[in-house]
Amino acid sequence: MRETLILNASFEPLSTVSLRRAVVLVMQEKAVVEQSHPGLRVRAANVELPVPQVIRLRRYVRVPFRQRAAWSRRGVLVRDRHRCAYCGRRATTVDHVVPRSHGGGDTWLNTVAACAEDNHRKADRTPAEAGMRLLTPPFEPTPADALLLALRLRDGETLPEWLTLPTPA
Ligand SMILES: [Zn+2]
């Protein structure tokens, strides 16, 4: 099932909705299509539309609280921009800061992107035990990270130019 990213009128990412729901919002003129899958079309109520990848609400809605992004290995790599937390080089693996064997969990605050070499070197130890230092501590994903995850961009793919993301601190 395809999902569509839904943005607030202010371009702030809100969540993802099913394709069906996205089409309904567009048909009801509650949302506009900002980006669609190239070449894919959907038929709804005798109208053919490009399959929306991102839609934006016409009216700003106040969101009382944000849904937190679910943890995933891919999410950790996206959050850390595929940079190793120990050396800053390209990361392709996910390291548990406190190893699972020590009770460390699959959480945003216990996982970092790591290059294969550092992940192998650290092995089943904490950074202190391995004599390794984290360049930056792990953190909960920002709305910008959530957006990248929702868009399912592959590494190296660029964001559409109408989107401006807050720069990571
Ligand atoms: Zn490394």
UniProtKB/TrEMBL annotation:
Keywords: Endonuclease, Hydrolase, Nuclease. Residues 71-120 form the HNH nuclease domain. Pfam families: HNH. One of its GO terms (molecular function) is nucleic acid binding. CDD domains: HNHc (cd00085). InterPro entries: HNH, HNH_nuc, NA-targeting_endonuclease. This is HNH endonuclease. It comes from Streptomyces chumphonensis.
